[in-house]
């Protein structure tokens, strides 16, 4: 994802660019090599909103540092709370 030219991915609009046109895939591998931080909005957009819109899709983060892992975990936990 460092190919987006930034070491920080913060916004929902950045997240939407990352997942644009990926609906045809069943598994998405997101490589966080070179990314130092992600914002709550970015993580929430991919791991809660996009995942809820595409429930048959598996999103696998790789090479995420501890801060990024925490942000992803938080988004996933929020998504689980949304399930009735």
Note down, in words, how this protein is organized:
The chain is α/β, with parallel strands linked by helices and 84 residues long. It has one domain (2-82). Helix content is 46%, strand content 17%. It is built from three helices and four strands, in the order βαββαβα. The strands form two sheets. Strands 1-3 form a two-stranded parallel sheet. The chain has a two-stranded parallel sheet with strand order 2-4. The protein is globular, with a radius of gyration of 12 Å.
Question: Secondary-structure blueprint of this entry?
Answer:
Layout: E1 8-9, H1 12-19, E2 27-31, E3 37-38, H2 40-53, E4 58-62, H3 66-82
Parallel strand pairs: 1-3, 2-4
Quick summary of this structure?
The protein is an alpha/beta fold.
> Which radius of gyration do the C-alpha atoms yield?
12 Å
How many strands in all? 4
Major sheet: size, sense and barrel closure?
2 strands, parallel
Q: What is the average of the pLDDT values?
A: 91
Q: Residue share in helices?
A: 40-55%
Order of helices and strands, N to C? EHEEHEH
Number of domains: 1
Global structural class: alpha/beta
Beta-strand level of the residues, as a percent range?
A: 15-25%
Give the distance, in angstroms, between the N- and C-terminal Cα atoms: 33 Å
Q: What strand order characterises the main sheet?
A: 1-3
Helical segment count: 3
Q: Regions with pLDDT < 50 over 5+ consecutive residues?
A: none
- The general outline is globular
